[in-house]
Design brief:
This protein is an all-alpha fold and about 200 residues long. The protein is about 75% helix and about 0% strand. It has helices at about 5-25, 30-35, 40-45, 50-65, 80-95, 100-115, 115-140, 150-170, 175-190. Helix 5 (about 80-95) runs antiparallel to helix 9. It is elongated and about 60 Å long.
């Protein structure tokens, strides 16, 4: 039995079509046809294409937020390094699995140049990573997994590395992202670990 709602199918279809054709070239008629509903039925759920773009952006931002990948309570002294590496690698994995992610995020970044609400939300997402990493690193220090030193700088560096890898992947660079993240975690966070 398929329990996926029409609303969800519309968002998933919009995500794919926007990634494939761009915001400008994707029409409400295309989305309705692909979903298998009439245009009036589509308008029942979303008043405009812009409404779909907005809701989709909110959903993507929730999905890619710090808390989607890192849960501070799951970190212990014994697993801190390994878990930080693993959780960061899960971001890379997720992006590699979704061919549409980079294309649609590039479009949202372009929208951000014209509409500050998109750029603000993207900046808030990055800031959320910095805040999250600060909390995670302070937790690491409190449980004796690492020294309590330069926490904000380390959090900012980890955020910059995550964002840079995201950007480089979206450009199609075939770098050793797993090795980059692993070395970064070891060099930045655990260089002065309490043993």
């Amino acid at each position: 039995m398929n329990t996926t709602s029409t609303y969800t199918v519309i968002l998933e279809t919009g995500y794919r079509l926007f990634a494939e054709h761009g915001f400008e070239k994707t029409s409400m008629a295309m989305i309705a046809k692909e979903v298998g509903i009439s245009k009036p039925a589509l308008y029942y759920h979303f008043l405009s294409k812009e409404a779909i773009i907005d809701v989709l952006f909110e959903e993507i931002c929730k999905d890619i937020g710090f808390a989607s990948f890192f849960n501070v309570q799951d970190y212990s002294k014994d697993n801190f390094e390994e878990k930080l590496i693993f959780d960061g690698l899960s971001i890379i994995s997720k992006q590699k699995e979704d061919d549409n992610y980079s294309r649609i995020m590039n479009q949202y970044q372009a929208l951000g140049y014209r509409n500050p609400k998109y750029s603000r939300k993207l900046l808030d997402s990055l800031d959320g990573f910095t805040v999250g990493f600060v909390e995670l690193l302070r937790h690491g220090a409190s449980i004796g997994a690492m020294a309590d030193k330069d926490t904000l700088i380390k959090a900012q560096m980890l955020t910059m590395i995550i964002d840079s890898m995201d950007n480089f992947m979206s450009y199609g660079f075939e770098y050793g992202y797993e090795d980059i993240w692993t070395k970064a975690v070891k060099a930045i966070v655990l260089e002065d670990a309490v043993k």
